[in-house]
UniProtKB/TrEMBL annotation:
Its cofactor is Mg(2+); Mn(2+). Mn(2+) binds at residues 148, 150, 224. Residues 144-232 form the 1-deoxy-D-xylulose 5-phosphate reductoisomerase C-terminal domain. It comes from Eubacterium ruminantium. Pathway: Isoprenoid biosynthesis; isopentenyl diphosphate biosynthesis via DXP pathway; isopentenyl diphosphate from 1-deoxy-D-xylulose 5-phosphate: step 1/6. NADPH binds at residues 10-13, 35-37, 122, 124, 208. The gene is dxr. Catalyzes the NADPH-dependent rearrangement and reduction of 1-deoxy-D-xylulose-5-phosphate (DXP) to 2-C-methyl-D-erythritol 4-phosphate (MEP). This is 1-deoxy-D-xylulose 5-phosphate reductoisomerase.
């Protein structure tokens, strides 16, 4: 039996991971964590019978314990201690980090220190702490298995040419694909009046609200560029973003001899999830298959970086280094949170990110503590500046 913990079990990736578990009888769920969706967590506990669960807030412990009072053998925890316990559950072989935001950094580090392989769906972990995470994983001989569809695609393409020294000298470019989101082709004047409801209508993928907004701003691609820099040990100049509106090509690798390898498939996150859980093996996965006879062509375009500034912010953060990627990420987290609450306009997301990057001092080689403290610093700065 493969035994797994899931951090963020009630979110989009968490629920799809449990769909994969349903299809495979040799996976056992030993621990789950969630935010405040206690009703769904109760259903998951009853179906998958983990021995440990954690909720975000202590006041929800009583509610959950009451809901599962007829069950025995389930330990219920909360907060940071609960997250760390789920991440380091002794029985777990692999930890699926499906939680959103910088809160995923500490449990990921704890899991690596406990010798757990990581199925990584929390891109903020490498964006903010890649300089800590990747060397630690190497030291502990732990696998970091990407779950993002784009990084999984690159990982699959590179798996046939892995070098034991970890270098990627044979790689010419990593080509990360983007759908372009719901506002592809729009200009700034058109974006001034878009609504939250408009931004949440992604053309291809069913995702959580935060990542859907990040896709609309192209910040998501920027985060993926930074994550790819750490995951695959390539310099930023070797990472490019191209627009592929159908979301059929999930990403590509160009090698120095001119060969290009791509991973294609329908837009279904269960594929990269299952690949990470069973790597290096592949298993049957139910679902729709690509029908090439019905495809009229594959469109490739370049992103509009003048209008959708998230990508350029990311390359700037990479160039400046230090804690700047954390500033970029944390400012975006705050801004998207405000947009989701309808407190700001869509284009104000960019204004907030740029203000934070221009006005908060960089720190070289930041510690985990400095990384985690940056979120509260940025929240306060942006609240004052934008009168939130």
């Amino acid at each position: 039996m493969k035994k797994i913990s899931i951090i963020g079990s009630t979110g989009s990736i968490g629920t799809q991971t449990l769909e994969v578990v349903r299809e495979n009888k040799d996976i056992e769920v030993v621990a789950l964590s969630c935010g405040r969706n206690i009703e769904l967590l109760e259903k998951q506990i009853r179906e998958f019978k983990p021995s440990l669960v954690s909720v975000e807030y202590e006041e929800d412990i009583k509610k959950l314990k009451t809901a599962i009072s007829d069950m025995t053998g389930v330990t219920v925890m909360s907060g940071r201690d609960g997250l760390l316990a789920v991440a380091t559950a002794e029985e777990a072989d692999i930890v699926v980090t499906a939680i959103v935001g910088m809160v995923g950094v500490e449990p990921t580090i704890a899991a690596i220190n406990a010798g757990k392989d990581i199925a990584l769906a929390n891109k903020e972990t490498l964006v903010t702490a890649g300089h800590i995470i990747m060397p630690l994983a190497k030291e502990k001989n732990v696998k970091i298995l990407p779950v993002d569809s784009e990084h999984s695609a690159i990982f699959q393409c590179l798996s046939t040419s892995y070098r034991s020294d970890g270098m990627r000298n044979e790689v010419s470019r990593l080509l990360i694909t983007a759908s372009g989101g719901p506002f592809r082709g729009m200009n700034n004047d058109q974006l001034k009046n878009v609504t939250l409801e408009d931004a949440l209508k992604h053309p291809n993928w069913s995702m959580g609200h935060k990542i859907t907004i990040d896709s609309a701003t192209l910040v998501n691609k920027g985060l993926e560029v930074i994550e790819a820099r750490h995951l695959f040990d390539v310099t930023p100049d070797k990472i490019e973003v191209v627009v592929q509106p159908q979301s059929i090509i999930h990403s590509m690798v160009e090698f120095v001899d001119g060969a290009v390898m791509a991973q294609l498939g329908t837009p279904d996150m269960k594929l990269p999830i299952q690949y990470a859980l069973y790597y290096p093996d592949r298993r049957f996965l139910p679902g729709e298959r690509l029908d090439f006879t019905k495809m009229s062509g594959i469109v490739i375009d370049t992103p509009d970086r003048d209008t959708f500034k998230g990508l350029d912010f990311a390359y700037r953060a990479l160039k400046e280094g230090g804690i700047m990627p954390t500033i970029f990420n944390a400012a975006n987290e705050f801004a998207v949170g405000c947009f989701l609450k309808k407190k700001i306009a869509f284009l104000t997301i960019y204004e907030m990110i740029e203000y934070a990057m221009n006005n908060i001092k960089n720190i070289s080689n930041p510690s985990v503590e400095q990384i985690m403290e940056m979120q509260s610093t940025i929240d306060e700065v942006l609240k004052i500046r934008f009168k939130i």
